[in-house]
Design goal:
Structural class: alpha/beta
CATH topology of one domain: TIM Barrel
Number of strands: 13
CATH superfamily of one domain: Luciferase-like domain
Radius of gyration: 20 Å
Order of helices and strands: EHEHEHEHHEEEHEHEHHHEEEHEH
Helix content: 40-55%
Length: 381
């Protein structure tokens, strides 16, 4: 067994403190998201053994497609988990863009399909469908895109929201980009079951995550499919538990109460069920933020989307990750503040612990054979 770990590209900027905003609310860090800095994060993630980096989507960050395309040439093996929203681009164009990216990056594209839960932001992009309609359109979109990736003859589809006629790609992607998809609302389940390779959830307590995974497993089984699972969560890992919680306390102390009030007001108007569940974990209060062993909800006070962090010693964080893995999580999409430094804290602290447990192996490091010389690509025993 080898779990897959991914990191995050903060294309809105980075900071030594929590960056407020996101999910329909503008945000920016005091470290600008220059290509030079994003390249540093990509290199740190690649060196530490992260398989890919997630790049967010929204009006509050840089465009994910353009940014990652500029980073391909500066990395060697790093994959890019590009988030994008169906309905803001033609499905045929999206299929073509992903095929082009996959070809020029030598197969290093992963797709994170985001239906969109902030109606005011969707409307800013010219999308006036309601939530139910957006999910229905996502299903049609993924049906068209997946069909075009494999079609050898012109493809026609007429749906309620999307229609293509005689569509065909001159060059199909090889390999097919894996599709990551998340959503806690009822309409999200069937979409994940039919089209996702990996279903994503934010970091809730293990019992809540287990229930959500069972929900998707049942729907996927009805479609005669098997879906992988991923967890999107932040990390604060240090040599000791005391040092990690001291860092969490420092981040919390740096939050302006006015930012909490402003961000919580904006997030409460979100149509996202996942966002509602994140808000419930802390209730807008900083009094009781450890909601499960080593699971801290402080990030969600000022950040939309993934609002929890695993906090503890390297061994404690590894133990919590192993618990989530036992539920069926295969992919962990992580982040921390600042993203450059935290990639090393986790990569040099937690990943070796997981490697000793037999749960992870560095994807790029040569394997050594006793008495021999290192060579890449060796099968593990």
């Amino acid at each position: 067994m080898s779990l897959s770990f991914h990191w995050f590209l903060p294309t809105y900027g980075d900071s030594r403190g929590l960056v407020a905003g996101g999910h329909g609310t503008f945000m920016s860090g005091d470290r600008p998201a220059s290509l030079r800095y994003l390249n540093q994060i990509g290199a740190a993630a690649e060196d530490n053994g992260f398989e890919a980096v997630l790049t967010p989507t929204g009006a509050w960050c840089e465009d994910a497609w353009l940014t990652t395309a500029m980073l391909v040439e500066t990395t060697r093996t790093m994959k890019f988990l590009v988030a994008f929203r169906p309905g803001l681009v033609s499905p045929t164009l999206a299929a073509q863009m992903s095929a082009t990216f996959q070809r020029h990056s030598a197969g290093r594209l992963l797709l994170n399909v985001v239906t969109g839960g902030e109606q005011h932001e969707q409307r800013a992009y010219g999308d006036f469908l309601d939530k139910e309609q957006r999910y229905a359109r996502t299903g049609e979109f993924l049906h068209i895109v997946r069909s075009l990736w494999t079609a050898t003859d012109p493809f026609t589809f007429v749906g309620e929201h999307l229609r293509v006629e005689g569509a065909l790609l001159a060059n199909r992607p090889d390999p097919l980009p894996p599709v990551f998809f998340g959503g806690s609302s009822q309409p999200a389940g069937p979409i994940a079951a039919r089209f996702a390779d990996t279903y994503l959830t934010w970091g809730e307590p293990p019992a809540a995550v287990a229930a959500k995974l069972d929900w998707i497993r049942g729907l996927a089984a009805a479609e005669n499919r098997v879906v992988d699972f991923g967890l999107r969560i932040h990390v604060i890992s240090r040599d000791t538990s005391e040092a990690a919680w001291a860092e969490a306390d420092r981040l919390l102390a740096g939050i302006d109460p006015a930012d909490i009030e402003r961000i919580q007001a904006n997030l409460r108007r979100s149509e996202s069920e996942g966002q509602r569940r994140m808000l419930e974990l802390h209730g807008g209060s900083s009094d009781r933020l450890e909601i499960a062993p080593n699971l801290w909800a402080g990030v969600g006070l000022v950040r939309g989307g993934a609002g929890t962090a695993l906090v503890g010693s390297h061994e404690e964080v590894a133990e919590r990750l192993a618990e989530y893995a036992a539920l069926g999580i295969d992919h962990f999409i992580l982040s921390g503040y600042p993203h450059l430094e935290e990639a090393y804290w986790f990569g040099e602290g937690v990943l070796p612990v997981l490697e000793r447990k037999g749960l992870w192996r560095h994807p790029n490091r040569p394997v050594r054979v006793a008495g021999g010389t290192p060579f890449a690509g060796a099968a593990s025993s």
